[in-house]
């Protein structure tokens, strides 16, 4: 194989296009309390099986082993092989929906270069399939302390048997033992060279789509995952999932994926613990909607046309006027609702300046200052605000943040609370149709 030329390291961007008001963190904390382990990016539970297979294979290597590139661990090398293998051998592209890193694999294949840390996701520990699903794998005991957990072992054995790969794990014999040896060798070669080290004609590329295809979990494999997800010791996940897959829950979600409507249904059957959590979420989402609509109205006005706009004009926008009135009215109650979950102090410290009853123009200034402060505190060295301000106080939106529409001005949630992920899981596992 010809040597790889190194690529220039990308420069860190000063742009920060996510969460301009800093309202995501509390919502995420509430979601984690309600449905631990599940993240909004998760779509397909079969990646839990891929993690179990990865843990089994990578147990062959020392825990401190790093690839020749100086950064990649054995699990990362396996992830490169799996993603490239699925991309190479999956006939229908729609069967790859929800596969993290697939675009990077497509580009590498097109360019005729092996997948590697330089060619893969910038932060695979967060955005690769291990990163996306690891929290859930740990919560349901697929993984424990970087090794197979109890459910991980059960999942691996169910998969091995259904796939006709007896001998893949443990000391038994069977066709899986030779497959395992070849995969371990591929990972070792990948570690030695810091990249995928198998050519286009490698017979075992087919292993990934044949045995770990995203939508192809077997019945016993699915049953192990389902039972783990319904573990009653994990937050309120069991309650939420059981209502979602009930006849009433299925019908409501099929009519339109509104988490506010679904949470209203949940409250009818919820335990006291879940009811308190749903109450806190309802209050926080009302607060978040006021802030988000005000900010979106401002961005929209600044976008048409893109020119300097005086603050007094922005202060007259419907979303701003409504938020200036409503946020101070509900602020205390929101903090009170968050208190049982340890989020009241963070809420008060973060948004206390917006709770004052002041004129619309003054409240707008506080909102703009809040946005600038949120951007300034973003890692690693702060991000630029979404607009520029001038000596006369006027604002002009920066090109990357132009908006064609303003705020929604309804009661929809700003944030997601994992119902979409649970619904996708349920479909894959055959719990709903």
Q: Rg, please?
A: 25 Å
- Name the structural class: mainly alpha
Query: Which range best describes the helical content: under 10%, 10-25%, 25-40%, 40-55%, 55-70% or over 70%?
Result: 40-55%
Instruction: Give the strand order, joined by hyphens, for the main sheet.
Output: 1-2
- N-C termini distance: 47 Å
Write up this protein.
The chain is an all-alpha fold and 433 residues long. It folds into 2 domains: 16-35 and 236-417, no CATH class; 37-234, no CATH class. Helix content is 54%, strand content 2%. The protein has 19 helices and 4 strands. Strands 1-2 form a two-stranded antiparallel ribbon. A hairpin with a 5-residue loop joins strand 3 and strand 4. Helix 7 (150-162) packs antiparallel against helix 10 (219-229) and helix 16 packs antiparallel against helix 17 (344-351). The radius of gyration is 25 Å and the shape is globular.
List the helices and strands and how they pair.
Layout: H1 24-34, H2 46-58, H3 74-89, H4 102-111, H5 124-127, H6 129-139, E1 143-144, E2 147-148, H7 150-162, H8 175-193, H9 205-212, H10 219-229, H11 237-244, H12 247-255, H13 259-269, H14 272-302, H15 311-314, H16 318-338, H17 344-351, H18 360-376, E3 387-389, E4 395-397, H19 419-428
Antiparallel strand pairs: 1-2, 3-4
Helix pairs in contact: 1-14, 2-7, 3-4, 3-8, 3-9, 7-10, 13-14, 14-16, 16-17
